[in-house]
């Protein structure tokens, strides 16, 4: 059963959610879409844990790398306020960062994944170190780039959060969570956006559900240990046909020292600050933030960015294959291209995440879309669900522009679809 509402012109989006919800097992999802500043889709369904508790209107879901888009937007807001410039060295605000050849790495270099600091397994001793914010920042200060900055680009899977999150704190002089609340959550009145989930909000959280495990114990390390399987080694060997650095994926994501007690549903991990992978969001909050970006920085009379800043941050910085993900990501300043099936978004940008979540905007169509989920694994950029959803949303807009240029305010209640 799907709950919520959807404008009649976007009815196909509800069908996408209906097809994607697990039929014979637990799991849920939520989708939200804004078009021309109006919320036209806000639906959810399924369960938020193995016990069968229904997904609610206010359910939060950990969204892995989708978090990076929110973190990036925060840094853009600080630049927009004149507190920093994209071509400033990171070390201007974070002097300790200058160690080991990093003195001249700029904010632009860091945000476009060109700093060469993706090898988290060489900077932290155990996976549990990711829960210690101060220790992780020290690891960034002592890190040595894997390549000459700006000579290549490789996805900073975990380290993007420490690099950009730490920089946000240094520029602002405030704690990361305070900046998130003051600069995004409060101005846009977001109903659920946390990076470091407070104990008071734990009751809203959807538990991640791993495949084949009939419980709410989700161990990412167990999944990552698949790297030792013969078929995965064969896959990495195949990747070597496209890149001479197939082991970069391992250096970025695979901790050789992981322990099976590192559960991603634990209160310890949920409450930790990890601005690359640990955000808990409603689809509604993600879509609303990107709606402001789709309208060049403003929504409902609230300006979080100027049109000039939105233009700067959405410009493509590199187009070659990523040294970690092995495909062209077309990195902007903190965002990547929008993946879709048969519906290219030339000017679209956003961020997808491991497990299937994602959020994006398209200023050309004044459109934004977000999905949160609690089942699935896929790649670091998710699986096919977001591209399928994206294609459906774009087709709806294309149909509107062709046959009905002006949306009315009618809403279709989607209960029991």
Provide an overview of this structure.
- It is a single chain.
- The radius of gyration is 20 Å and the shape is globular.
- It has a 7-stranded antiparallel β-sheet with strand order 10-11-12-2-3-1-13, sandwiched between helices.
- It is α+β, with helices and mostly antiparallel strands.
- The protein has helices spanning 11-20, 67-80, 107-111, 133-142, 159-172, 176-188, 220-224, 230-239, 248-253, 267-271, 283-294, 307-313, 385-403; strands at residues 2-6, 28-35, 38-46, 60-62, 193-195, 205-206, 279-281, 298-299, 302-303, 349-352, 358-362, 367-373, 412-413.
- α1 packs antiparallel against α13.
- β2 (28-35) and β3 form a beta hairpin.
- Helices cover 31% and strands 13% of the residues.
- It has 2 domains: 2-64 and 186-216 and 267-413, Beta-lactamase (3-Layer(aba) Sandwich), CATH 3.40.710.10; 71-174, no CATH class.
Labels describing this entry:
alpha+beta, 4-stranded mixed β-sheet, disordered C terminus, 31% helix, 417 residues, globular, 2 domains, Beta-lactamase
Draw up the topology in text.
Layout lengths: L1 E5 L4 H10 L7 E8 L2 E9 L13 E3 L4 H14 L26 H5 L21 H10 L16 H14 L3 H13 L4 E3 L9 E2 L13 H5 L5 H10 L8 H6 L13 H5 L7 E3 L1 H12 L3 E2 L2 E2 L3 H7 L35 E4 L5 E5 L4 E7 L11 H19 L8 E2 L4
Parallel strand pairs: 4-6
Antiparallel strand pairs: 1-3, 1-13, 2-3, 2-12, 4-7, 5-7, 8-9, 10-11, 11-12
Helix pairs in contact: 1-13, 2-5, 4-5
């Amino acid at each position: 059963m799907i709950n919520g509402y959807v404008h009649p012109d976007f009815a196909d989006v509800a069908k996408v959610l209906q097809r994607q919800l697990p039929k014979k097992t637990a799991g849920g999802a939520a989708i939200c879409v804004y078009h021309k500043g109006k919320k036209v889709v806000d639906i959810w369904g399924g369960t938020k844990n193995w016990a069968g508790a229904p997904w609610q209107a206010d359910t939060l879901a950990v969204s892995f790398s989708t978090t990076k888009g929110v973190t990036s937007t925060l840094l853009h807001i600080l630049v927009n306020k004149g507190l920093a410039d994209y071509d400033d060295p990171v070390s201007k605000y974070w002097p300790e960062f200058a160690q080991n050849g990093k003195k001249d790495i700029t904010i632009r270099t860091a945000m476009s994944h060109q700093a060469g600091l993706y090898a988290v397994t060489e900077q932290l001793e155990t996976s549990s170190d990711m829960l210690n914010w101060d220790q992780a920042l020290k690891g960034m200060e002592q890190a040595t780039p894997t390549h000459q900055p700006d000579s290549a680009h490789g996805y900073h899977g975990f380290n993007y959060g420490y690099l950009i999150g730490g920089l946000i704190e240094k520029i602002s002089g405030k704690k990361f969570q305070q900046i998130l609340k003051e600069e995004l959550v409060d101005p846009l009145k977001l109903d659920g956006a946390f990076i470091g989930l407070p104990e008071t909000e734990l009751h809203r959280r959807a538990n991640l559900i791993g495949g084949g495990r009939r419980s709410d114990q989700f161990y990412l390390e167990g999944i990552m240990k698949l790297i030792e399987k013969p078929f995965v080694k064969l896959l990495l060997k195949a990747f070597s046909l496209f890149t001479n650095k197939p082991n970069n994926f391992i250096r970025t994501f695979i901790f050789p020292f992981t322990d099976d007690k590192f559960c991603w549903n634990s209160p310890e991990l949920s409450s930790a600050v990890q601005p690359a992978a640990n955000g808990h969001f409603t689809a509604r909050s993600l879509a609303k933030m990107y709606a402001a970006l789709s309208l060049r920085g403003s929504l409902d009379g609230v300006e979080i960015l100027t049109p000039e800043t939105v233009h700067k941050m959405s410009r493509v910085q590199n187009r070659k294959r990523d040294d970690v993900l092995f495909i062209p990501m077309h990195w902007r300043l903190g965002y990547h291209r929008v993946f879709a099936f048969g519906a290219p978004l030339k000017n679209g940008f956003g961020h997808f995440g491991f497990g299937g979540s994602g959020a994006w905007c398209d200023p050309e169509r004044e459109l934004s879309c977000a999905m949160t989920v609690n089942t699935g694994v896929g790649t670091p950029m998710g699986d096919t669900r977001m591209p399928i959803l994206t294609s459906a949303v774009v087709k709806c807009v294309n149909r509107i522009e062709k046959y009905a240029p002006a949306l009315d305010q009618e809403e279709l209640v989607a209960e029991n679809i």
